[in-house]
Give the backbone structure.
Amino acid sequence: MEELIKTAKIYYGSSPAVRDAAHKFFEDMDHDKDGKVSLHEFLEFMKQEGHTKMSSRDFFKTLNRKGSRTLDFTEVLTLFYIIQSGRPFCHGCDVFVAGTYFTCSKCYKSDNNNNNVISLCPKCFEKGLYTHSHERNQFLDNYALLALKKKRGIAWAWTHSIQQHQVQPTSSKVAASTSNATNAIVPYAPPHHGGGHKWKLAFQAMRLAVSTASLVSTIM
């Protein structure tokens, strides 16, 4: 968990947009505005937003590194990062995996939304404490999976570049539309104004800021 906390702090310091989004997220969890997030506030928020795996006293204790009865800003910031980065719960033992985990690469490739992708903690993977239709050799740890995704992305970009040179748009409007769709750093998603959950807008800002920071760090 300490590594996740350090990583969350790094992203927090990457840009004003990330800092603003993180503070907004914290403020929306802190219903009574006392500067802390109680177990009750935490559970209510997580259930309301559909994070059922995280909506538990045990996960609250995992975040609460100081052992107090409330979460401070840094702990909520870490929660924000965990949600954003998609850290999994083990499909074998249902424990939150803070470090290395193993994912079925075949499921990951075929499921665009990653809703049904199985991930396992090292212990469950090593001992075979899981049931899955795909072979064991289809599993990769999260770092190897990232490397594989990068290779596939390079291959796609190369193929797409060739196709763009082969097929030219028939009008300037089509060309502009194609350029906007393929060159955007983050696909535009119109904000949803229903429900009154302002933190979702902050969450979108966090995604944009983190994606931009990652792109800049990669280039530099």
Notes: The longest helix spans residues 142-166.
